[in-house]
Each structure stands twice: as C-alpha cells, then as structure tokens.
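Forwarding these from the shared drive since the link keeps breaking.
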Amino acid sequence: MLILKLKPYYRKTSQKKKAGLVAQLLRELYLLNFMKFILGKKIKMSQVFTDDGTVIPVTLIEAGPCFVLNIKNKEKDRYEAVQVGYDKIEKNKKKKPEYRYIKEFRTKNSEELSSYKIGQEINASQFQKGEKVQITGISKGKGFQGGVKRWGFSGRNSTHGTKHENRTLGSVGASMPPRVMPGKKMPGRTGSERITIRNLEVIKIEPEKNLIAIKGAIPGRKGTLIEIVNKNS
C-alpha cells in the first residue's frame, strides 16, 4: 500500500511531488471504503500453521480473475450494479456467452460505480490478510431425505411395540382442521440451497496464483461457484 511507502520518502521530495503523493494517498483511502467483490471456485480444505504452531483450518478458493462486462446505472436500468464475468470459455461457439459465469453485484452509490470500467480486471490482490468477508455458495445436494436427517427429528422411542417406525415422523396433522398445515416440516429434497456465511477471515492471499485462503468451512462441493464480498460497512 502507498501509505506504507509514503513515510520514508516524504521529507526528501519536493512540494509538487508531496502534493501528488498526498492526493494519491487520499484516493487510496477513499477506495478502501468501496465494496470489494470477486467470483471464484472452491478447491479444497487445507491447514495453515502460524508462527507459534497453531493450526488453522482453511478453505482454498481460486478467486478470479474476473472482468467487468457491463455497468448498470439508474438512468438506464433503474439500479446501480457491476456485471462481471468469470471463467472465460476459450473455444466459444456462436451465440454463446463468452464467460461460463456472469453475476451482478449491487454498489452503494454512483461514486463507487464510477470506479469501474468495462473490460477492467478484478483479481484477488484487492483483498488483504485479516479482513472479514462474506461468502455465498450453493450447498451440497443430498437428494430426498427423511425428517430425521432433514430436520434433526429424534424419531420414535425404541421401546416395546415400536416396529419399523424408528425414523418415522408420527402425527403430522390435527383433528380440527383435519389436514396438514402449510409449512409442516416433512421429508423432502435436502441441500442445493444458496447459503451465505458472514465475517469469515482471510488467512492468506497468493495473487500470482489467484488463491485466497478463508478460515473455516464454506458451503458447496469442490468446484462450486463462490461469491466473495467485503461491503466495508
């Protein structure tokens, strides 16, 4: 960051260069309040050892590079957002998207929107070690499951008279009205849901390899599309 490089050389530079450095510093501090976002893929879980030997479980994410495809504004689209593309398709067929994944991220204001340009590259270098991010992904699909696995029901008592009903629901309705009420927890398809986890810490960043290590587990299987957002709010 410029704020770390400014101090040793500030006294040796001229007034004109000082003004330029201060303007660049103010611009950098101004951009720090902007929302950061990027798309990536979940690779696997691993471990990171600190200097004192503490083991930190992390999830490795291949983050970016993403490219700005379109900019939505209030005058034309009635909302402000940045549309980015990720995982470019090399052998592209006609009338097919150029990128495998295309997502939109809403911005806070028009000033933040003006900092992006079409064709701009977004990579992992914008994030910093130790900051908190928000992770969004699709959880693992588990198929059609019963109430015990889907909702954590205890099942029936394993006592005299219980036969082949250890994992059944039991009563699901009432005498009046004689029907199943809407919203009743019952067997059904489990998983494959959009899940968001907030305040996850960035443990390590390798911009040259487009890798970000996030503390803890995140939703999804290997290869799941992951959204990493830091709203700085």
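-- next protein --
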Amino acid sequence: MRFFHRDGGLTRLRRAVLPVVLIGLCGLLFALAGRAERGRGRRAFRFYYRVSPAGQLPAGTRVSVWIPLPSDTPAQRVTDLRVRTSMRATEGRDPIFGNRLLRLDGVAGTLDLEAEVIAEVTRLRIRHNVPPGGAMALTRDQALLVLPCLESCPAEAGGPAVTALAREVTSKQTAIIDRVRAIYDYVRGNVRYDKSGSGWGRGDVSRACSVGRGDCTDFHALFVAMCRAIGVPARFVLGVPLPRGKRAGAVAGHHCWAEFFLPGQGWIPVDVAEAARNPGRADELFGGLDADRLELTVGRGVKLPGARATERVDLFLYPYAERDGKRFSGWRHAFGFQDM
C-alpha cells in the first residue's frame, strides 16, 4: 500500500490508521524510554540517504531498488520522513522482523533513477538497569514472542565449535543476565578490532571465533551466535554512526550492535565492539547506548517484499537492486547528516 503525497518532486510519507497507532505507541515508549534511564545525551539531526545507478543503463531497463527506512524505537523517534525521487516509491515492511523499507521502481531512459530519503530523527542516550541475577529461563509465551530471534539464518549459524565455546564461557552462571554478561566479556576480551587482511566485515561467525579479529559486524555476529547457542534470544542491529564533534557531513560507513531479550525488561542493547575499543566504557555499553547513532535494520536475513532474485538479504543496510528481475550490484549510495 502506498501512502505518498507528491509536491514538486518531494514525496512525504504518510501512514494509515494502524501505523499511526503504532507510531503513537512508539512515541510513548520513546517518552518513557521503556524501562531505561534517560541519560543526558539527546541528538536531533537530519539523515540523508542518497541512491543512484553507478553507470548509465540501457534505455528500457527496468530496475527495482530496496533501501531501509528508520523506524521509531524506545531510543529513537522519526519526526519527519520525505523522499525526493521521480521513481515510483512504495513503503513496506519485511515480514520477519518488521523493518521499515522503501522500494523504488523505474525504467531507464524514461526518468531520473536517483532518489534521496531525508529523515528528521531524535535519538536518546539510554541506559537499562540490568543488575546481576534474576530470571534463569524464558517462559513459553516469551519464547514464542521472540521465536524469529532464536532461529538463525544460514549466515548466522555458528556450528558446534561456537556452541561448545558458549557453554564453556557460561558454565559458572545460571541467571540469563549473568550468562550474557560472561559472553559479552569474553567477546570483547578475545576479539580484536582489526580490519587488516580479508574476510572481515561479513559477520562470519566461524571466522570471528577462529581468528579472533574483525570489525563491529564480526564482533556482534559472534555475540549473537553465542547467546543463541545457550537459548538466549539475541538479534543483530544495523545502523550508521554519527561523528562526535561534528555537526554535519558525510558518513563513510556503517555501525552495528546487538540486543538480547531479558524477561521483565525486553530487548537490551550492547555494543561489544565499542567496549573492546574503549574498555573504560564496558559497563556503560552493556545495557546502554549513546545517542550518536541511527538505527536502520534489525536482524539478518531480511526478506524484501517483491524481490525476485533472492530469498533473503543478509545485511540489509545498503541498497539492494534488481535489473530486469535479476540481482544487480551497479547501484551506489551516500549517507550524510546535519544536526538540528
């Protein structure tokens, strides 16, 4: 279903009644910050996501492009979202995790195949109170609620070695929070932030476990896999970092973190990679996040409505494109931001 209003090439996304109710609920969660404690950090900014073909396409070529859109969360509120494009723009959600996304369709030679998403976002620094002890297992209803995050897509499967490691690392703990903290401390203490060589940045669990180095993608892939290996629901989160000390500019890459499910509190964030790089922030980043980031996608193996050339997209942050129904890598992107 499309909820767009075009005015001079600038498209403002509009939502139906049910999404409005959901947004109202997210707004309440944002105001209360769930069970989290609101820190001093608050950052309001515009985020720009630009996409265009990397080269000229033959006239008559049909293209479809999918990109993620930011959603409201307890730590993030999207106050305005617009799309500037000549292409047909359709908003949707993936059926597994509910990620908000935008599909763009066009025909080369008949219109400009560029698009720009402009989102106004306020992000909070949050901190959950996660004392030791507490629940030792999920109830049946809780397990059903988070079932998609107990099941791994192929890219997230860790195998017997990761399962054995997770059990060894948590062998002295019984409560969920204590077992997850043991995994967090193990990963930040035994994986090195190192982007040298090849193979890093793909979230390859086995590689991260065996070589002990990589980027934020690899850190959190291992963390999620180890949590799931002991029956704790955990999920991957993808977004972009906002540079500290800068009020505007380009954003060169992405950042990711993870969340685990704690009975009585819900989804609790961790940033193991940043904790490894900044050991003095280890306690802060277990259950808390700063405001210098934008969340775009939850989970791996995202299903894109209408995509014909793939069953799932592993790390859905950058544009996924199809050309005449076949996967097409010739699409470029640019991220930018401006503090408000």
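The chain has a mean pLDDT of 84. The longest strand covers residues 36-53.

- D.
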